[in-house]
Structure formats: C-alpha cells, structure tokens
Design brief:
heterodimer, A: Rossmann fold, B: two-stranded antiparallel ribbon
C-alpha cells in the first residue's frame, strides 16, 4: 500500500508544488494521476521514489520514504519514464533488462533467463539483442516497460506511457498495461488511455488533490475537468 | 563532445544526421564475424596498447624501421574483413590533425640527413614524416580494435585491467548518448534553419546560447537517467557483458604479435631485406 499523508513539497521557498496532499493507493489498484501542466503529477512520482525531499509522510508498504529506507522502497517500485531514451542506457535491450537484476545480485545466467521470460511475455523476443539506439519509439517504450517489469516491482509508476506513439503502438502499450496485475500509477494527459487502464483517478490542481474517485465518474465530469484546465476524453466528446 | 558540437553547429543538419548514422555503423562493424572479431577483447586491447607503445618509441629519424610497423594494421584489416578505406573515411577529421603535429619540424631542424641525387632531405622532414606515420599507424590500430569489439566488451576489458569504474562508465554513457545528443543538435539546428533561411550553418553569435541550451538539456537528461539507474539498484558499478575467459589462442596472438613488434623495433627489417636483395 502507498500512502501520502499531508505531504508538501516546495522547490523555492514559499512556492509549494505539492500542498498538503493525502491519499492511499491499495495493492493492485490502477490509479490515473491527472492534472494540467504544473499541477504536481511528476512531483508526486519523484517524491514517492525519494528523488526529492518532502514534508509529511510517504510510506510504501509501511516503509517510510527517507534516506535510510530508499533502497528497500525503490526495490518495490518501478518507474517507466516518458522519454525511453533516458531509461535505456545500456547498449542492447538484453543488457538493459539485466542491468537491474545484476545490481540486485542475480547471476548472469539467472538474469538472462528472467530477461528471456519477460521478453517472451511481452512478445518482444526479437528485440533481445537489438541496440537500444536502433529501436523505434514504440519498441523503445515496450523495452523500457520490460526493463521495469523484469525487476518484479510491487507497483509500477508510468509517466506519460503513450506520448508520441502512433495509434498502433499506443494500443499495444494500453493492452500491456491492462495485462499487468500489479499496482499501477499512471500520469498522463491522454485521458482516453487513463479511462482504458485505470479504475481510479486522482485529479491534481495547483499542488492539491482536487478530486479522487472512480475513473468513470471523474472522467465524465465535464465541469470539473474544465475547471481544472482539462477536457473530457476524446471518446466522450460529441461534435 | 563539445568539439563535436562546434563542428556540427558549423556544418548543418544533413551532416548531423549523416554523422549519427556513421556512428551507428560502428556497431554494425563490431557485429561482423571474423577471426579478429572473435579474439578476446582484453587480448586485442593489450596488443593494441603494446603496438602503440612500440610504434611511438621509434627514433624520430628511424623512417625505414618504422615503416615495417604498418604490417600489423594491414594484416588485421585483411583478417577482419573491414576495408582500410572505411578506417580512413571514418577518421577523416582526426587524421589531418594528427598529420599536422610535426608540420613545423622542417623549419626547426634543417640539418641535412639524406641525399637522393641532387635533393637533400633535412632531418626535420624525416622527423615530420615519422611523426605522421606514428600517428596514423596508432590510429589505424585503435580503429581496428574498436571496430572489431563491441563497446560493452571494450568496457569489460578496461575494467579487467582495473581502469577506474568512473572512467569506464563515462565512456559507455558517452558513446550511448552521443547519438542522442547529436539528434538533439539536429532538432535544434532544424528549428534554427527554418527561421534563418539561406544561412549557411549557425551564426557564431548564436553558438553560445545554442551550446547553453544543449548543456541544460543534457543536464536534465542526465538527472533522469541517473534516477532511472538508482531505481534499478545502481551502486556505482556497471555489470558489463560477460566476456568469456580468454582461450590459449587469444593469448598466443598477443604474445606472438608483441614479440613481432619488438623484433621490428630492434631489428631494422627493411634494411635487412634491402641488404639481402642487394647481395643477391
């Protein structure tokens, strides 16, 4: 379980990016974190991973997110970045998947076996020996997801997983996300994708939680969304 | 890296794309199969080090002794299936710089060294030529090493000889991200060109802000990258490709090649052959 309890963050003195937010995410939940630019979505992700200091309390499975616990907390979480190039730093897909596994003490044989398993689960066997810089945008995103899932995290955080993808690759990513039976926190402006993948939505505005509840209810609330500089998902808009 | 960026800013976007493609071709070369490719990376690395060490140790006037050192890169190119022209083409920017090193020698060392008919060649000219040859030979040997070995294997070999992890990690990430940065430069150059039609390259007045932007972007990128590494348990040490243990043949290659280099260094093979031919 992930718990934010009265969490506040300020980058500059007096300018709060997150302002006293509290929420809980239960195991196995799929939560869409939505909001206009600058609402604090990325900050929530970063603070959860202990990448920026915070006031208040953030816990992951009862473990407080602070310096001494960071390696344990991070072992439980996986992050898929918006820009896969920043995530795939090893020469080949296989090496990238094995990177984290080897860091956690797995032998090379075990790590490769595990990498094979995750590649086959995601239907990416042909990417195994491909060089990262030669992958297409969609392939790179799928490979980035594989690198995270191979670590078997309890929860996965995804930052704009479908941005800059064509409809075909977007659909593949959505289906992949739906097939992941772990806790998911997804930030995105693609509200149709959020609707497809999340059962719950947390709407952030000005660093505060403006709404928290059933995705189907919040994403259909035109007035609420528009008051927070968002729009109804395209599939719900009538011309 | 900064040097590359300056060159790219001056040249324009088509050349940037071409440079990115060219860099990527190095991976394709390393993926070929040949006896040279199959040699253990550490054996190749050591042989290359020894070759360069022996090559640069030749006396500055020992032109005839040095010329025999060309045998190693030529044989390696033949055995690897990589064309020598590929090497010269890819090194076309560095080669003139290397050749320029001894350019002023003829002005400082005018003592006559050799007479060919009526033509007297000064020591400066000879030392200029040997300096150029040392540079070119060393580059050729280095090229044959990097073009027949994957970067991951090179890094693994460097760690095996205890090169500090920070330096090896820097090498790996620089190579991995140089193409990404070049693509970034390409995008920025395109944006510039579209608003500066008819201009050749980027005006020098914009270079400062251009490089500043690039630096900021690379800093953002490196922060995200580091976060991503931390989240996957990075503790300061990369786990490089599992390079198999060297075979006896690998080490025999290094020993035989090294012995040959030292023979070339201390026995003037060219002179010896010349004497044999003259006597015959």
């Amino acid at each position: 379980m992930i718990r934010f309890d009265h969490v506040s963050i300020e980058y500059e003195k007096g300018k709060r990016v997150l302002d006293d937010i509290s929420f809980e995410i239960r195991d196995g939940e799929s939560v869409g974190l939505i909001g206009a630019n600058g609402a604090g979505k990325s900050t929530v992700m970063k603070s959860l991973l202990g990448l920026i200091p915070h006031e208040g309390s953030i816990t992951v499975d009862g473990l407080e997110v602070y310096k001494e616990n960071l390696s344990q907390v991070r072992k439980k979480l996986g992050l898929v970045l918006q820009n896969s190039d920043n995530q795939m730093f090893m020469p080949t897909v296989l090496e990238d998947i094995m990177f984290g596994l080897l860091n956690y003490g797995m032998s090379r044989e075990e790590a490769e076996k595990k990498a094979d398993g995750i590649l086959s689960k995601l239907g990416l066997e042909d990417l195994k020996y491909r060089h990262n810089h030669k992958l297409s945008g969609g392939e790179k995103r799928m490979a980035a997801i594989a690198t995270v899932l191979a670590m078997e995290p309890d929860a996965v955080l995804m930052d704009e997983p479908t941005s800059a993808l064509d409809p075909y690759n977007r659909r593949i990513i959505i289906d992949t996300i739906r097939g992941m039976n772990i806790t998911k926190i997804i930030t995105s402006h693609d509200l149709d994708m959020i609707m497809d993948t999340c059962s719950r939505v947390i709407l952030l505005s000005g660093g505060r939680v403006a709404a928290d509840g059933d995705a189907d209810v919040i994403l259909r609330d035109k007035e609420l969304l528009e008051s927070k500089r968002l729009e109804l998902p395209l599939s719900l808009q009538t011309r | 890296m900064i040097m590359t960026c300056f060159v790219l800013l001056y040249t324009g976007m088509e050349k940037i794309d071409a440079a990115v493609a060219e860099l990527r071709e190095m991976d394709d070369l390393a993926a070929l199969e040949s006896p040279v490719h199959s040699l253990h990376p550490l054996a190749k690395l050591l042989t290359t080090f020894i070759y360069i060490f022996v090559t640069v140790s030749f006396d500055k006037y020992d032109l005839s002794g040095l010329i025999v050192m060309l045998v190693y890169p030529v044989l390696m190119f033949q055995a690897s299936g990589i064309k020598m022209s590929t090497c010269f083409y890819k090194l076309r920017i560095v080669l003139p710089l290397v050749c320029a090193v001894g350019l002023f020698n003829p002005f400082f060392d005018k003592a006559p060294m050799l007479s060919i008919g009526a033509l007297t060649v000064s020591g400066g000219v000879i030392s200029m030529i040997t300096l150029m040859m040392k540079g070119v030979f060393s580059l050729m040997a280095s090229f044959i090493f990097v073009s027949t070995t994957s970067l991951d294997a090179i890094c693994a070999a460097l760690r095996k000889i205890h090169i500090p992890s920070v330096i090896v990690t820097l090498l790996l990430l620089t190579f991995r991200y140089v193409t990404v940065m070049m693509e970034e430069v390409s995008v920025m150059t395109t944006a510039y060109m579209l608003r500066a039609p008819g201009q050749k390259g980027i005006n020098y007045k914009a270079w400062g802000s251009f490089l500043g932007q690039l630096l900021l972007r690379s800093m953002d990128r490196s922060e995200e990258l580091y976060s991503s590494m931390l989240l996957r348990g990075f503790n300061g040490e990369f786990s490089y490709a599992d390079v198999p243990k060297g075979r006896l043949a690998d080490w025999l290659f290094t020993i035989a090649a090294s012995v040959l280099f030292f023979v070339f260094r201390y026995v003037n093979v060219a002179e010896l052959l010349g004497n044999i031919i003259m006597r015959g």
